[in-house]
Amino acid sequence: MTNAVLRYSALILKLKAVMLENIRIILVETSHTGNMGSTARAMKTMGLTNLYLVNPLVQPDSHAIALSAGASDVIGNATIVDSLDEALTGCELVIGTSARSRTLSWPMVEPRECGEHCVKTAKNSSVAIVFGRERVGLTNEELQKCNYHLYIPTNPEYGSLNLAMAVQLVSYEIRMAHLITEEKANAADHEAEYPPSEDMERFYQHLEQVLSHSGFIRKAHPGQIMNKLRRLYTRARPEIQELNILRGILTSVEKWAGKSSESGRK
């Protein structure tokens, strides 16, 4: 790789890391340190590290570290603030989780839509996903600070999700949206170069020559086999590098056949 390519690759990796760092997971008035640890674990497995704790009723302790299962850095670097407004400072997009039926008429999203919105916005701005108290969730006043309300469509007969489970589901959808965005970007970066028709014709001639010399087809009547092989490679549409590999294989077979012939004469 050239230095320019290496610098470009390093820049892309840095931008991807910044994008995920722009996504804040905010827990409001958490009452169990175990939920802090389990949340940190759920976040880190999906590449998220930016945890905010709003007026926690307990402080992170050894139990939180134990349940973080290797994500103690997320706990250690968590930002602790007194109010939700402080946690939302600088955020362009705010999504609040809501498990209860509300009288508020507000735009609703499910986890998949949430992931897509977050990844799109986090490219250039900060995003917050707000999770409420273990027992009562977010207040109406807190939900009114959000652009969207997030609803997780669980089993209507048993919709009990604990805090860390909800964070895991949402973090997973963010991860998937992030990976899809990466794949599209990588596909756009890779502009395939295809050989001109004359190069394909030379390949077909070379292929027919090798198959004829090997006895696989009769030189005077290549017929249907070559026609089918043409259709095969037309469908496959090999790129320039792939065609070069195919030509290299044919050349290698020719050399091997020549050596075998000489050995036979000896």
Automatic annotation (TrEMBL):
GO terms, molecular function: RNA binding; tRNA (cytidine(32)-2'-O)-methyltransferase activity; tRNA (cytidine(32)/uridine(32)-2'-O)-methyltransferase activity
Any one Gene Ontology cellular component term annotated for this protein: cytosol
Database matches in InterPro entries: Alpha/beta_knot_MTases, RNA_MeTrfase_TrmJ/LasT, SpoU_MeTrfase, tRNA_m1G_MTases_N
Compartment(s): Cytoplasm
Entry EC no(s): 2.1.1.200
Domain tRNA/rRNA methyltransferase SpoU type span(s) in chain numbering: 23-172
Catalysed transformations (reactions): cytidine(32) in tRNA + S-adenosyl-L-methionine = 2'-O-methylcytidine(32) in tRNA + S-adenosyl-L-homocysteine + H(+); uridine(32) in tRNA + S-adenosyl-L-methionine = 2'-O-methyluridine(32) in tRNA + S-adenosyl-L-homocysteine + H(+)
GO BP of this protein: tRNA nucleoside ribose methylation
Keywords: Cytoplasm, Methyltransferase, S-adenosyl-L-methionine, Transferase, tRNA processing
Role of this protein: Catalyzes the formation of 2'O-methylated cytidine (Cm32) or 2'O-methylated uridine (Um32) at position 32 in tRNA.
Subunit structure: Homodimer.
Family affiliation: Belongs to the class IV-like SAM-binding methyltransferase superfamily. RNA methyltransferase TrmH family.
Name this protein carries in UniProt: tRNA (cytidine/uridine-2'-O-)-methyltransferase TrmJ
